[in-house]
């Protein structure tokens, strides 16, 4: 019997509120399925399952707040016998050793993405279930208690169909009413606290060193322009994609920058999962991971990046995306500043920053010419690497960006 | 006609359909004449009236100076005097120069004369973006005109409506503005050989569906139909409503569709703030609030002057993908 526990979705997450189950006891589930929505200080996150089998029992009800590590549900592996029910959520074990972070390493602004709608919808009211007008009028007509209906509409809202389904179903005894979810203000304050905790911990524990170098983007820009002319508008690539790929490839020769510092020692990571800093319009930021960046062509990375940005701003990130970055990249985009010296995101050991691209004088073969320049920076953990290696890493990133066609 | 026999069908462009409508009107009613910039010798800025000068003569196909206020005013005067003028304005962007005549005279005189004066003028205007002619020739102001009481606003989106709306407009006792989206002139369609007038009071359901109502008009109809096609591949059955008449709005058809699907996406090539789509959204809220299962979504043109470069122009306008995305947002878990 596998235990599905409240995951840690950030270095300083202590507890989460179960918002909604997406599965029911008896459902066949597989690794990677999104089974629940969990409210954290960073917003509502879709949580994935890491086991396959049959869902035996749900131990936590929507609205309950439980500590990280608490058992949320039991999953029976294939062929395993049905086990007796567990009466109450188990006490959480010691916090898992890998507690990858969510919050905020730097002041960088992310590449801009167009909003899908002009105005973000308000968060659900604290005291009433979120239900459509049609659902409300049907609930009144059919005598259905909306607190007992789980919604499948936009943002989890209860739709008319949900009410009709609930009315048809045998009404189970009403569970104790769920505590209200935090207000948007409380949620924003929570995110601020989470960022504060992670950044303070970083500056307390990690001896940072900082390097930066100017990179001539003439060739990269020309190549990108040529590619983009051939691509449909929706697939056009931003310079950030080149930066991400170059950083990921450069880590192959500098494993001491890609990995996690855990239990007093550094563990390099084979895979390169780049955390991308995305600032949110209402303030605060998220750092979801782009997975396996070295393995993917630029077009795929661009698609995944756009998707991440949109979902981060919509509050629809998945737990695995918030939990497994091995190195972070922050890019100021436009308008921004010349350079960004990031704060490392524990337990990672480095953060790479890109300032805004600027047209500036640059000496080429003895002549001063205007060139698009970007300042790339590295903040790294001196417990793991030294400035000499850090400088060689930045030089490698620069060389990779001179041959964009090979990225 | 014996059962089972189809009427002979002819293929024609939207442009040819408008021309056929103009010619029919000139043939059928001696009070009708056509007036506007370049409608005569040049054959019309969009070649709608090509050949009309030769066929009907300079009395009835009249080139005017480049002065919208003057020739729209002349059209209003002629209508008050018993004629049935068709006034062509090259684009709605220039139509703004005639706004005073339209609001203060055409739309107002019946009221101010205590019903003694009628202004049965028909004004045809090209509208819309998509041809890379930049901000001063590309805007969609029909939503502004639809604000004005006392006039009727039509937006033919099909070849059939392009052929049939003009004659019906000429039968109206009050001013009628017909907005022809410039991207539609080259569109081809099939019509019965004897196609004629169509009614101009109702919206039309161009594609039935039960999951979400996509409500639009004019040039956006075809993008919306393309979006419905995209959605159909995902198992979403979208209903496409073509408003046809922007003033007065056909509340019955609009609200009927939204009541069936419980979800609405409004597609409007105008700017979003204070737009026709805002009016539609308000009406849905006022009259169908308890039928809704999701907030009404709007897909409008970005609030910028229409850009000149092709990729920016495309990005500024509603497109099938953005329309489909808005539809998905109304559907939540099933398709979110």
Give your account of this protein's structure.
The complex is a heterodimer of chains A (407) and B (336). The relative contact order of chain A is 0.15. In chain A, strands 9, 12, 15, 16, 17, 18 and 19 form a seven-stranded mixed β-sheet that branches. In chain A, strands 1-8-6-3 form a four-stranded antiparallel β-sheet, with no helix packed on it. In chain A, strands 5-4-2-7 form a four-stranded antiparallel β-sheet. Chain A has helices at residues 133-142, 160-168, 184-205, 218-230, 239-250, 298-314, 319-323, 387-402, and strands spanning 2-5, 15-21, 28-29, 34-40, 43-48, 53-58, 65-67, 71-76, 208-216, 259-262, 265-268, 274-276, 278-279, 285-286, 289-290, 327-331, 350-354, 358-364, 367-381. Chain A contains eight helices and 19 strands. In chain A, helix 1 (133-142) runs parallel beside helix 2 (160-168) and helix 5 crosses helix 8 (387-402). By secondary structure, chain A is α+β, with helices and mostly antiparallel strands. Chain A has three domains: 2-76, RNA polymerase II/Efflux pump adaptor protein, barrel-sandwich hybrid domain (OB fold (Dihydrolipoamide Acetyltransferase, E2P)); 133-168, Irregular (Dihydrolipoamide Transferase), CATH 4.10.320; 186-406, 2-Layer Sandwich (Chloramphenicol Acetyltransferase), CATH 3.30.559.10. Chain B is α/β, with parallel strands linked by helices. Chain B folds into two domains: 9-192, Thiamin diphosphate (ThDP)-binding fold, Pyr/PP domains (Rossmann fold, 3-Layer(aba) Sandwich), CATH 3.40.50; 204-334, Rossmann fold (3-Layer(aba) Sandwich). Chain B has 13 helices and 14 strands. Chain B has helices at 14-28, 52-56, 68-80, 92-95, 99-106, 109-112, 142-145, 159-170, 220-233, 251-261, 276-288, 310-316, 320-329, and strands at residues 9-13, 32-36, 61-63, 84-89, 122-127, 152-154, 176-181, 188-192, 204-207, 212-216, 238-242, 245-247, 264-271, 297-301. A seven-stranded mixed β-sheet of chain B has the order 3-2-4-5-7-6-12, sandwiched between helices. A five-stranded mixed β-sheet of chain B has the order 9-11-10-13-14, with helices on both faces. Chain B starts with 8 loop residues before the first strand and ends in a 7-residue tail after the last helix. In chain B, 51% of the residues are buried. Classes of the chains: A alpha+beta (407), B alpha/beta (336).
């Amino acid at each position: 019997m596998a235990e599905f526990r409240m995951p840690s979705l950030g270095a300083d997450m202590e507890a989460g509120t179960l918002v909604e189950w997406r599965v029911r006891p008896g459902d066949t589930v597989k690794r990677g399925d999104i089974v629940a929505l969990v409210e954290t200080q960073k917003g509502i996150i879709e949580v994935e399952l890491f086991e396959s089998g049959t869902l035996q029992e749900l131990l936590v009800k929507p609205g309950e707040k439980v500590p990280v590590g608490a058992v949320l549900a039991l999953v029976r592996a294939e062929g395993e016998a049905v086990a007796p029910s567990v009466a109450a959520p188990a006490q959480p074990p010691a916090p898992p050793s890998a507690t990858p972070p969510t919050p905020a390493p730097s002041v960088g602004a992310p590449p801009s993405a167009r909003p899908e709608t002009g105005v973000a919808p308000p968060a659900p009211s604290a005291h009433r279930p979120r239900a459509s007008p049609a659902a409300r009028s049907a609930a009144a007509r059919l005598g259905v208690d909306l607190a007992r209906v789980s919604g499948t509409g936009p943002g989890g809202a209860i739709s008319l169909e949900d009410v009709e389904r609930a009315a048809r179903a045998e009404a189970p005894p009403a569970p104790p009413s769920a505590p209200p979810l935090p207000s948007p203000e409380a949620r924003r304050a929570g995110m601020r606290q989470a960022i504060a905790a992670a950044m303070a911990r970083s500056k307390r524990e990690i001896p940072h060193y900082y390097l930066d170098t100017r990179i001539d983007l003439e060739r990269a820009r020309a190549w990108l322009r040529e590619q983009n002319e051939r691509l449909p508008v929706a697939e056009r690539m931003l310079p950030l994609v080149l930066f991400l790929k170059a950083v990921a490839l450069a880590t192959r020769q500098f494993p001491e920058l890609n990995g996690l510092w855990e239990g007093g020692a550094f563990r390099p990571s084979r895979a390169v999962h780049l955390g991308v800093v995305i600032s949110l319009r209402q303030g605060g930021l998220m750092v979801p991971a782009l997975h396996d960046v070295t393995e993917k062509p630029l077009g795929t990375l661009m698609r995944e990046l756009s998707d991440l940005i949109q979902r981060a701003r919509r509050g629809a990130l998945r737990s695995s995306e918030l939990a497994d970055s091995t190195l972070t990249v922050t890019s100021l985009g436009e308008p921004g500043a010349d350079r960004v010296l990031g704060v490392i995101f524990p337990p990672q050991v480095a953060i790479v920053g890109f300032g805004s691209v600027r047209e500036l004088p640059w000496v080429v073969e003895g002549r001063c010419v205007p060139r698009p320049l970007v300042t790339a920076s590295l903040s790294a953990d001196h417990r793991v690497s030294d400035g000499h290696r850090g400088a060689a890493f930045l030089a490698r990133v620069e060389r990779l960006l001179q041959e964009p066609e090979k990225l | 006609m014996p059962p089972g026999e189809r009427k002979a069908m002819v293929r024609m462009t939207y442009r040819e359909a408008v021309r056929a409508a103009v010619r029919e009107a000139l043939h059928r009613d001696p009070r009708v004449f056509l007036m506007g910039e370049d409608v005569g010798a040049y054959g019309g800025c969009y070649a709608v009236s090509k050949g009309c000068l030769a066929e009907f003569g300079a009395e009835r196909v009249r080139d005017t100076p480049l002065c919208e206020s003057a020739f729209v005013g002349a059209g209003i005067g002629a209508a008050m005097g018993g004629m049935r003028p068709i006034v062509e304005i090259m684009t709605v962007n220039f139509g703004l120069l005639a706004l005073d005549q339209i609001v203060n005279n055409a739309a107002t005189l019946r009221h101010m004369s205590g019903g003694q004066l009628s202004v049965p003028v028909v004004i045809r205007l090209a509208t819309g973006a998509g041809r890379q002619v930049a901000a001063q020739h590309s805007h969609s102001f029909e939503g502004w005109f639809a604000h004005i009481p006392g006039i009727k606003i039509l937006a033919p989106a099909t070849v059939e409506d392009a052929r049939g709306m003009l004659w019906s407009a000429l039968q109206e006792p009050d001013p009628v503005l017909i907005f022809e989206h410039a991207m539609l002139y080259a569109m081809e369609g099939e019509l019965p050989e004897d196609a004629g007038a169509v009614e101009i009071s109702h919206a039309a359901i161009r594609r039935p569906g039960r999951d979400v109502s996509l409500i639009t008009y004019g040039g956006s109809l075809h993008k919306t139909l393309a979006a419905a096609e995209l959605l159909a591949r995902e198992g979403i059955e979208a209903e496409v409503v073509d408003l046809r008449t922007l003033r007065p709005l056909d509340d019955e058809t609009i609200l009927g569709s939204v009541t069936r699907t419980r979800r609405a996406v409004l597609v409007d090539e105008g700017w979003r703030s204070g737009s026709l789509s805002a009016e539609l959204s308000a009406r849905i809220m006022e009259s169908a609030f308890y039928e809704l299962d999701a907030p009404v979504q709007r897909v409008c043109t970005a609030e910028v002057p229409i850009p000149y470069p092709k990729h920016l122009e495309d990005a500024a306008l509603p497109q099938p993908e953005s329309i489909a995305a808005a539809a998905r947002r109304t559907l939540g878990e099933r398709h979110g």
